[in-house]
Amino acid sequence: MGARDAIDDLRAVITFFTIIPIGGSHDVSRALRNAWLAILIVPVITGLLPGLLGYYLSLYVRNSLAIASITYLLLLILTGLNHIDGFADVVDALMVRGSVEDRVRVLKDPHRGSASIAMVVLLIILAVSSLPNLMRVLWQSLFMAEIVSKSVCCLSGVFGKEPGHRGLGWQLTRYSKERVHLVITALIVGLVMTYLLLRFIGVIIALISMSLGVLLFMALQGSLGGAVGDLYGFILEVSRVITLVLLSIVISTI
């Protein structure tokens, strides 16, 4: 693979996982084929940048809840709100008591139910309320949480069940299984970065969050006909919040 191909891979991954306009073609297949790179690249954008903003705001603003809200809002904006849209779709689908086909039909419905709106609000409240306890390690925590989030996404693909229809979820699952060695390598590098950020406590929390995230993904995929695209968005959001909540609990007791 030449340098041009490597650059195109990076651009595709960044374009897919963020709203950063870096040009190039919007090749979704290329992005999903190289999703393992998201573990190493995307957290710099969606975790480190909001974290640094929060850090500098804390030098001038004394209201930690306001800082937390602004910081997390920037994080969500940088993701393009695509993952949280998938989270809402999955919540709506899980509210259906019918067949798998009925749930898949709800996944594709652009309308939002009251349950999904309430759960999105609750998810954001959980994330924002965890950040005031993390002010002294804010950028490290957000950086780490994004590493975990992207790691859970790729690991879920490795263990996921390919859905019947060949959409985004099918592609990400297939490519993750084909490139499991790259996923594991990126995961190990991500854990090393986590150690540098928050030492052993960060690694332990990262491993717990990853385990919970993958188990949740595997438990839900049967209700949705496999590892569908929206379920990946769901687990990206949930695993980040799990990580922040666990960090908040542990850091506040130290």
Q: Summed up, what is this model?
A:
By secondary structure, the chain is mainly alpha-helical. The protein has helices at residues 3-17, 28-33, 38-58, 64-78, 82-94, 100-107, 114-130, 138-159, 168-178, 180-221, 229-253. It has one domain.
Describe the structure.
- The chain has helices at 3-17, 28-33, 38-58, 64-78, 82-94, 100-107, 114-130, 138-159, 168-178, 180-221, 229-253.
- With 254 residues, the chain is mostly helical.
- Helix 5 (82-94) packs across helix 7, helix 8 packs antiparallel against helix 11 (229-253) and helix 9 (168-178) crosses helix 11.
Distance between the termini: 47 Å
Total helical elements? 11
Q: Give the overall form.
A: globular
Q: Overall pLDDT, averaged?
A: 94
- Write down how many β-strands occur, each being a DSSP E stretch of 2 or more residues: 0
The largest sheet, given as strand count, sense and whether it forms a barrel, is: none
Beta-strand content: under 5%
Topology:
Blueprint: H1 3-17, H2 28-33, H3 38-58, H4 64-78, H5 82-94, H6 100-107, H7 114-130, H8 138-159, H9 168-178, H10 180-221, H11 229-253
What key attributes describe this structure?
254 residues; 11 helices; mainly alpha
